[in-house]
């Protein structure tokens, strides 16, 4: 459906190449990609990511979400594991550290990403399903089992942005499944969390997008023009 209705979204979405039968079972064949952002975030050698890489990744996901939302489709499970890196090739650079010495730094060759796993997407006129989303990326309305719309994707991509910039989950407390589990999860105060984001534009982007009130979160189209994206913010969403 996405292929037919939103061809401009295809560069940002992982959609099946073919659907066929194998030994009586329906098979969906998709292109193989290098890795996902969950694996990238766990790779200490690559962090901190260059800011231009972090912003490029978030911008691409927002672009794909903008096209989905324009069709009335909500992804519903945006998280690092559902954002695929097209190429995991790296190279080494020499960078000047704050102590005046040069250090080797491993850097991704390309920050191109693509959104995957549309299996649980909410289609137009379809009721919201519960449970939905993944802990640490679930908007308050999902956590409370209320009706939800495309604004849950905005909340989730802001959580991903925080994680790309800090290597920490913005809402790790959502992963707590029992009182005994609390001691294994480091939960920071809001002030301590925001202090991890020194860039004012990045902080503004994340805070606005994680507003507890869904109707106060910006749309994907609006966020594509946010100053967090630098020169990319001047591009029209449809281009």
Automatic annotation (TrEMBL):
UniProt source species: Gymnopilus dilepis
A molecular function (GO) term: ATP binding
The name this protein goes by in its record: Protein kinase domain-containing protein
Ranges of residues in domain Protein kinase: 1-229
InterPro entries: Kinase-like_dom_sf (IPR011009), MAPK (IPR050117), Prot_kinase_dom (IPR000719), Ser/Thr_kinase_AS (IPR008271)
SMART domains: S_TKc
Membrane-crossing segments per the record: none
Keywords: ATP-binding, Kinase, Nucleotide-binding, Serine/threonine-protein kinase, Transferase
């Amino acid at each position: 459906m996405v292929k037919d209705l939103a061809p401009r979204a295809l560069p940002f979405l992982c959609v099946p190449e073919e659907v066929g039968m194998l030994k009586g079972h329906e098979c969906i064949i998709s292109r193989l990609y290098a890795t996902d952002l969950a694996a990238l975030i766990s790779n200490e050698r690559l962090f901190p990511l260059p800011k231009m890489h972090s912003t490029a990744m978030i911008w691409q996901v927002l672009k794909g979400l903008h096209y989905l939302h324009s069709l009335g489709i909500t992804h519903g499970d945006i998280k690092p594991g559902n954002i695929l890196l097209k190429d995991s090739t790296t190279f080494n650079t020499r960078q000047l550290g704050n102590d005046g010495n040069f250090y080797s730094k491993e850097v991704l060759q390309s920050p191109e990403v693509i959104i995957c796993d549309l299996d649980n997407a909410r289609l137009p006129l379809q009721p919201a399903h519960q449970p939905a989303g993944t802990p640490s990326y679930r908007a308050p309305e999902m956590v409370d089992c209320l009706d939800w719309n495309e604004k849950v994707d905005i909340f989730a991509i802001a959580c991903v942005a925080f994680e790309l910039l800090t290597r920490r989950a913005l809402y790790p407390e959502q992963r707590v499944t029992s009182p005994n589990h609390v001691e294994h999860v480091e939960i920071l105060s809001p002030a301590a969390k925001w202090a991890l984001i020194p860039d004012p534009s990045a902080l503004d982007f994340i805070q606005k997008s994680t507003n507890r009130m869904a109707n106060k979160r910006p749309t994907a189209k609006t966020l594509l023009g946010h100053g967090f994206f630098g020169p990319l913010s001047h591009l029209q969403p449809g281009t």
